Every structure is written in C-alpha cells, then in structure tokens.
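Researcher: I need the complex structure. Ligand is thiamine diphosphate. Inputs:
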Amino acid sequence: MLTTLLEHIHDPKQLKALDTSQLLVLATEVRAFLVKSIAETGGHFGANLGVVELTLALHRVFDSPNDKIVWDVGHQAYIHKMLTGRQGLFPTLRQKDGLAGFPKREESDHDQFGVGHASTSISAALGMAVARDLKHQHHHVVAVIGDGALTGGMAMEALNHAGHLGTNLMVILNDNEMSISENVGALSRYLTKLRSDPSYARMKADVEQLLRRVPAIGNRLTNTIERFKDGLRNIVVPGQFFEAFGFRYLGPVDGHNLPLLLNTLEDAKQLKGPVLLHLVTEKGKGYPSAENAPDKFHAWPSAKKGDKRLKSYSQIFAETLSDLARADRSIVAVTPAMVPGSGLTGFAVDFPDRCFDVGIAEQHAATFCAGLATQGMRPVFAVYSTFLQRAYDQLIHDIAIQNLPVVFAVDRAGIVGPDGETHQGAFDISFVRTIPNMTVMMPKDAIELRQMLATAFTLNAPVVVRYPRGEEMTEEPAKPLEILEVGKAKIEREGTDVALLALGPMVEIAVQAADKLLADHDIRAQVVNMRFVKPLDTECVLACARNMPIVTVEEAALIGGMGAAVVECLADAHVCAKVQRLGITDAFVAHGSRGDMLKELGLTVDGVVQAAKSLCRQIDQTEAH
Ligand SMILES: Cc1ncc(C[n+]2csc(CCOP(=O)(O)OP(=O)(O)O)c2C)c(N)n1
Ligand SMILES: CC(=O)[C@@H](O)[C@H](O)COP(=O)(O)O
Ligand SMILES: [Mg+2]
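Model: Output:
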C-alpha cells in the first residue's frame, strides 16, 4: 500500500529531517488531505489552503512548542493541527467531542492561545514575549495575522505597544486581500499598493543597493549617514506604516514559494526587535473553485436547500430590511466584515450607499451607528451575538446613555454549533438586559422576525432583535407588517397545570412538549411566547405564577437570561412560585452540531417534558403532605 509522507508526521520536529523537495511533496499531500477531509466534515476551507506553505515553513524553521506560534482567528490552523499529531482526528472535526475547529490550549501544547475571534494574536504574542523576557528565556514568539484581522482595532493597539516595547517579536501578515468577503478599508488599500506596485519593489531594491554602497566612516558622519538612510527609506521603501509603529518591515514575499519562505524566515529569525513579515498568499490556493470565489469557499459550502421556502433567519432579516429601507430612506445597514454571513449581500447591491462594511471593527461599528443616529438616520447594526461582545462599552456609553435609536440585528443568538465556545451566542441577553433604555426581543419564527424588525423602527430608542443560526419555513409576509405591542407576551396554548414560558425557537419546542405532556401524562401546559425579554410582560408572568409552576425555556445563559428576568419579576412582586429554568448553564458550550448541543443542555421536547413533569410531581407531593 502506498503511504504518504504526511501519514508519518506526528511531530513537527520531523520536518527538520526533510529536504526542500520533500517539503514540496508534503505541501501537495497536505492540500489533498485538506480538500478530502473538509469535503466530508465541512469546516473552514479557503484560509487553510492559503497557508499550507507558511505552516510547513513555520514548523520547519521554528521549534514548536518551545517557540510560540500564535494564530489569529484560528480558522486557518488546520494544517498546524495536522502537523502536530492530530491528523487522525480530522474525521471528527467540529463534531461533539471531536477535534475543535480552532486552536485550543487544552487540545495540544502546540496551541499556544485559544482563539476564534479576530485581531487578538499580536496582543497575546506580545504578552508571551514580555513574559519570556521577564523570565530570562530566549525562545521565539510569532503571531500570524490575516489582512482582515489586521483591520481590527486591537491589532493596532498591539502594534503600537509592541513598537514601544521593542522586544523580539515576529508578526507575519498573511495578506490574501480577503476577509470573509473582499477586505475593505484604507489599510487594505495600502497593502494593495505595497503588493502590486512594481515600482515599489524596484525602488526598494535600488535604494537598498545604494545604501549598501554608502561608506560608514567616523561616528558623527555615520550618524548623519544613518539619518540620511532612514530618510531615504521613509521616502521610497515600502512598509513605512509598519516602520512608523517601530517594526522592521520585510516583504512583500510570495507566501506560496516554499524555498523563499524558508530562507526568509531563517533570516528574519536572526533579527532583533519587532519584525513584520508581509506575505502575499491566495485564499483557496490549489482548489480552482475556491481560488475563483474565495468568499464562497471561506467555509466549505453547505448543501443546497431542497425546499425553496426554507430560508436562514439572516436572509429573512435582510430581505425585510430591504423592504423597510425602500420605504424609509433613513435606514442604513452597518456590518463588521460580515456581509454574506448576515445575509446582506443583496442589500449591499440594492443600497450600495446605505450599506457599510466597516471591517473587523465591532467597536467602531457601534459608535459609527451612534453617530448616524444623532443625525436622524436609522442605523441597523447587523452583528453576530458573539461579536457584539466586543462593543459593550459602546453599547452603554455611546448608544444607550444617549438613548439613540440604533437597531441591533443580533444574529447567531443561542447555540451556533460547530464553531463552539468562542462563537456561541450565549451572553447577549444577560449583557444587554442590564442596560437602561434597551428593548430586547426574540422572534419565534420568520413572521415574527419581520414583525419585530418593523416594530423596532417604531421605537425611538436602542432595540435588540436577536435571532438564531438556522433556517425557517417562510411564506410571503402579509403587508403591511403587523407592529407588535412592546412588552406583550403571547399565549400560544392555554393550560392550568404548568406554564412553559419560552423564547424564540424554544416556543415551538414548548408547544410540542405541551402536546406530549397532555398525551402521555395528562398534564395541561400553558405555553407562553415571551417575545420580549425587556420590557418583560410582568402581568403575564405574575398571572402564570399565581396559578401554576413555571418552566422557562431559552437559548441563552441562565445567569441574567429571560428566566432570570422572570425570577426577578416574582421577587420584586413578592410572589412565591416554583420555577425551573432551562437554558445555558454556567459553563461554556463546546463545538458540536446545534442539535447535539441543545440536547446536552436539555433544550429539547423531552428536556422540557422532564422539567415540567418533575415540577408538577414536586407540587403533588407538597400538597399530599
Ligand atoms: C471579532 C471578530 N469579528 C468577525 C469575525 C468573523 N471572521 C472570521 S474570519 C474573518 C475574516 C478574517 O480575514 P483574515 O484575517 O484576512 O483571514 P483570512 O480568512 O483571509 O485568512 C472574519 C471577519 C471574527 N472571527 N471575529
Ligand atoms: C471564523 C469565523 O468567525 C467565521 O468564519 C464563522 O465561523 C462564521 O460562522 P457562520 O458559519 O455562522 O457564518
Ligand atoms: Mg485575509
């Protein structure tokens, strides 16, 4: 049987024994393995194909885990995982109890920093470098950051600090001109200039040659000459931006030329102080469809939908927004580098002047919305729940205190599935509900999502509409869209034995649980679609609590969630009631399918039935005594 080089790599140290031609063979094998494996499991695709040579070169030149390699976002770390003893786990990628889709410290000593969100690598690597210095150690620290992630404010803050400290740190900028979709912004334009202007490369070579010829004689003269050299460099040598931050800039270098990469890394490794190595790579390299449409192959494309009426919540949000925007010219959409994920591709085409991709910059996006709102615009901040965490102070300081009418379209709220801990939308209710002036709602289905968006624009205050990752059956909405009464829950099913207070997609689970409770246990459950977490329908909650025990069901953290709001309401009204809360317990939810993880949390029909049954049994026992 034919064996491959890759099969025999269990430790990156083994790469040191391979010559360049063997490494080139290995690169081909890695690509083939990656394509086959991700086609089976799904996962992040294009970014990994783009760093095959880089990852091989890094593990050949550096000595992981003693040398620290820190990946930004981490969606491109699959090859790193393959080369560090985890190749056999790829069939379990992003599945429950399987290999994680991002680096995780508990998974391997080679994963130096847990990640999933963008723009953290330079800060984390700098922390590691400073710890090394304080402990008088001598290893290398390397951060690998993409051109998209570099647009994040944190990356700039870290460059600023690293340049100030001046310690040994290598930052590798993996520039493929792409974020998930095309990278945007002035910095991106600057990188394009560095990459593509042949005169830069020519001038750089000429100047370096000229500088080498200038003789260094005598101290005073040397200083003058050095100043002259620096001046010349600043005029014509690319990388001025990074040099101004205190980094030595190297590049641009072809990130797919393995021999060149090996030499460049070996040289760069000898340099002292902060160094930025600018690599030019291609997202999707080696897989033509991904090379031609890197945005579509950021992750392996999901199977085509069979039923045309099945749409993602993101699509329903964006279509509704387009309808509303046609009627109201003040509506604008703002997204932090998530045009396709948020469903905004069509909106961006229809309203190019009213759709703003601000790059990976959630903090800026929030305050940008605030500014728009002060001028009478109606900004919609389309953001994943997990990434909204980045903008908490902006939410309070820039939006809520001034009671500005920003609509937060909070996508991926609840369990997201295969991305795991870093991406679960667990906390938004807890962190938003505590802020004065905020309204928080969650639709049970597509129709309600449309109604809630329309309702949000009737309020002259900040509003969160949260909705899950997933698909919904959708019919053409009745027009005009019904405006909901703010703070009013809806009783979906009358009952007398137990009240199931549910939020979002959990309403359907509760309805099915009520059917089962009646059929199998003769328990009549009342089902309430809470709709609003804030303001809470306290009248409805108290009416339920006075007559029956309560089970709350939500796809959100229990601490601070909708159930917590119900319990606060009872405490404030001095009403004693038996309440069982179902939701995300005080632990991070790992990766796995959405279904698997909801099951683990008891957020299923059976989970609700069990909880309701046991509450009713407790009450029967109390009454029997
Ligand atoms: C704070 C944050 N916002 C948004 C995202 C979603 N996201 C994941 S990868 C990515 C693009 C990153 O682009 P780049 O760093 O250039 O890496 P590439 O995929 O091009 O290799 C985005 C926007 C994220 N992970 N974290
Ligand atoms: C790495 C990252 O943050 C994104 O690529 C994320 O995985 C996208 O998630 P969705 O698939 O839910 O859009
Ligand atoms: Mg990129």
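Model: Summary of the prediction. The longest strand covers residues 550-557.
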